């Protein structure tokens, strides 16, 4: 296909273990009672404990190396999975990782756990900030500082969500269609900065599966009304990058964002997340994380119970990673 030719011509570094496994969750589905449920193990992409950002980083690192960068800058919250995967990807490509991380008061946390521990072990240069997403000011200041020092930084937006990063999920959809066939499937996953959802949506159109499939992002931190324009914009930019004219607006029914499971807010673990984490762990021996995949799985469980996800076609739950942060949440998980 012409469109995938354009994708395959983009600079890309091979850093992920692909394809990731995709298989049915028999015991979990049996306990839930409802549709066939499959899991796509994007937590097993291999890069320093894996996750969905690794797919995006294959294209982002390709672009960074092509630009002749010697270091990369990105940003995220304290326990950012994206920042940790970026640090690992940078090291794997011989670049120096600079991470702008949010913490209250811009002060490093008392305990270095989970992702921050991994960032530290990889020798990432951590710059603490109290600026919140999208961290534009802090990243711009750091870029200027590094340039003054004679460095050539490549800036990756938070979540790796731009038209380049999202290509990782256009490719992931192509991969999933090979594993699952071209029949209708309901894709369910955690959505946050929007690149995963935008890539999957564009990928579903390019693979010809959009008409029969659903791509449902369960928001972990933002109202649908805030996130939908961002996803639409990314889809349109990604399409343009591939020379494909499929324009969407934020109210296009293809952009399904569910914001019913925000609970107490981003990274606030409640009973639904605790239940979902235990249920998958006890039925399948698979761990999801407290912030993203635990919340998305809790949403999936509720939507099946309410009948908003029906049993007319298989569901694929995309495990996007993050389990390394479980130990940083032990107090709220054991409540
Ligand atoms: C970043 C992340 C997501 C969300 O992906 P976006 O592309 O930012 O929407 C989901 N799950 C995990 C574990 C993540 O780290």
Any chance you could write out the topology, listing elements then pairs?
Layout: H1 2-8, E1 22-24, H2 26-32, E2 37-41, H3 53-66, E3 71-77, H4 81-92, E4 96-102, H5 114-121, E5 125-129, H6 136-148, E6 153-155, H7 167-180, E7 186-191, H8 195-206, E8 214-219, H9 224-241, E9 256-258, H10 271-284, H11 293-306, E10 315-319, H12 330-333
Parallel strand pairs: 2-10, 3-4, 3-6, 4-5, 7-8, 7-10, 8-9
Antiparallel strand pairs: 1-2
What proportion of the residues form beta strands (DSSP E)?
A: 5-15%
Q: Which runs of at least 5 residues are low in confidence (pLDDT < 50)?
A: none
Global outline: globular
- Average pLDDT works out at 97
Number of strands: 10
Please describe what this structure looks like:
With 335 residues, this protein is α/β, with parallel strands linked by helices. 41% of the residues lie in helices and 15% in strands. It has a six-stranded mixed β-sheet, with helices on both faces. Strands 5-4-3-6 form a four-stranded parallel β-sheet. Helix 3 packs across helix 7. The model has no long low-confidence stretch (mean pLDDT 97).
In short:
With 335 residues, the protein is α/β, with parallel strands linked by helices.
Keywords:
single chain, 335 residues, alpha/beta, 6-stranded mixed sheet, 4-stranded parallel sheet, binds pyridoxal-5'-phosphate
């Amino acid at each position: 296909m012409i469109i995938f030719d354009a994708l395959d011509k983009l600079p890309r570094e091979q850093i992920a273990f692909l394809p990731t496994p995709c298989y049915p969750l028999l015991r979990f589905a049996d306990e839930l009672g409802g549709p066939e449920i499959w899991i796509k193990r994007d937590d097993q992409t291999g890069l320093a404990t894996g996750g969905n950002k690794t797919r995006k980083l294959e294209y982002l690192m390709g672009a960074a190396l092509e630009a002749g960068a010697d270091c990369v800058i990105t940003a995220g919250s304290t326990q950012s999975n994206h920042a940790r995967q970026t640090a690992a990807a940078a090291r794997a490509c011989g670049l120096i990782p600079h991470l702008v991380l949010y913490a209250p008061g811009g002060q490093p946390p008392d305990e270095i756990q989970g992702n921050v521990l991994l960032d530290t072990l990889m020798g990432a240069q951590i710059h603490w900030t109290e600026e919140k997403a999208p961290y534009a000011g802090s990243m711009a200041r750091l870029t200027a500082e590094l340039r003054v020092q004679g460095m050539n930084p490549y800036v990756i937006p938070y979540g790796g969500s731009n038209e380049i990063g999202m290509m990782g999920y256009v490719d992931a959809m192509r991969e999933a269609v090979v594993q699952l066939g071209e029949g209708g499937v309901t894709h369910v996953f955690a959505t946050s900065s929007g690149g995963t959802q935008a890539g999957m949506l564009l990928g579903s159109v390019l693979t010809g599966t959009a008409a029969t499939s659903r791509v449902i992002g369960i928001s972990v931190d933002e109202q649908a009304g805030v996130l939908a324009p961002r996803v639409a914009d990314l889809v349109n930019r990604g399409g343009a990058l591939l020379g494909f004219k499929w324009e969407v607006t934020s109210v296009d029914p293809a952009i399904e964002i569910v914001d019913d499971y925000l609970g107490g807010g981003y990274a606030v673990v409640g009973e639904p997340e605790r239940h979902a984490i235990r249920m998958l762990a006890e039925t399948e021996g698979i761990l999801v994380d407290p912030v993203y995949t635990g919340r998305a799985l809790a949403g999936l469980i509720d939507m099946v119970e309410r009948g908003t996800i029906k049993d007319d076609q298989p569901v694929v739950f995309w495990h996007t990673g993050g389990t390394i942060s479980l130990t940083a949440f032990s107090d709220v998980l054991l409540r």
